[in-house]
Specification:
This protein is an alpha/beta fold and 235 residues long. 32% of the residues lie in helices and 20% in strands. Helix 1 (10-31) crosses helix 2 (45-52). The chain is globular, with a radius of gyration of 16 Å.
Length: 235
């Protein structure tokens, strides 16, 4: 059964999630030379990032990358990379190495091959991976309406036979996105699912019942390959 930690709001959730992720990074660094943290964008992770960046650990041995990204440069306010640089890679965490998803290629699809090489050189499994969840049940950039959803889920696939990153289409057209594929999301020591608010609690309950393409996050919750821990805010 998926462990669920409930909090009254995101402000209370953030330091607890940050402390747990820091523990995961320390554990990985005790066993290997470097460790990789994969994070999501959006507003909800910002307080987590700001708490995590002050945690004491050997940040210079940590690589930080993204779970997904809009196909825009960091000069664009919609960039997840810019969000991470602004809110996470500061303070103690400024010593970490950032591995962006946006490559500058003309299209997200054109960037897939380069990112395959980039992710093959990261320390994996990911020491920790933080996912969010949308009101439509998407996670990362695996949207229920995306024509590339099946390829992104790659059900039955492994990291050996599935590309790490795949171009996707967001819920709000025509923004191109890049997303980790499900086999690579599951290639993690621990996955955290963070969400808040009554509407997302309802989505989580639906997605927890069984794997369903209507709720792509359900495939993360249903699998047994990687442990999933939920950090949820009631408001």
């Amino acid at each position: 059964m998926t462990p669920i930690h409930w909090f009254p709001d995101n402000a209370a959730l953030a330091p607890a999630l940050a402390a747990s992720v820091a523990d995961d990074l320390r554990a990985a660094l005790r066993e290997q030379e470097t460790a990789t943290l994969a994070v999501s964008g959006g507003r909800s992770p910002v307080p987590v990032f700001e708490a995590l960046r002050e945690m004491e650990l050997d940040w210079q041995r940590v690589a930080v990358t993204l779970v997904d990204e809009r196909w825009v440069p960091e000069s664009d306010p919609a960039s997840n990379g810019a969000l991470v640089r602004t809110h996470l890679l500061q303070g103690r965490a400024a010593a970490a190495r950032f591995v962006p998803m946006y490559t500058g290629a003309a299209t997200a699809a054109d960037g897939e091959a380069e990112l395959a090489g980039v992710f093959s050189r990261l320390a994996t499994p990911f020491a920790a991976l933080i996912l969010g969840m949308g009101d439509d049940g998407h996670t990362a950039s695996l949207f229920p309406a995306s024509p590339q959803l099946e390829a992104g889920l790659a059900l039955g696939g492994t990291v050996a036979n599935t590309p790490p990153c795949l171009a996707q289409v967001g819920a709000v057209a025509p923004t191109e996105r890049m997303s980790l594929t499900l086999p690579w999301i599951l290639h993690s020591r621990r996955i955290y699912l963070q969400f808040g608010g009554a509407s997302k609690v309802a989505v989580f309950e639906k997605a927890s019942s069984a794997p369903d393409r209507q709720w792509p996050v359900s495939y993360v919750l249903a699998q047994t390959q990687a442990p999933v821990v939920v950090f949820a805010a009631k408001a």
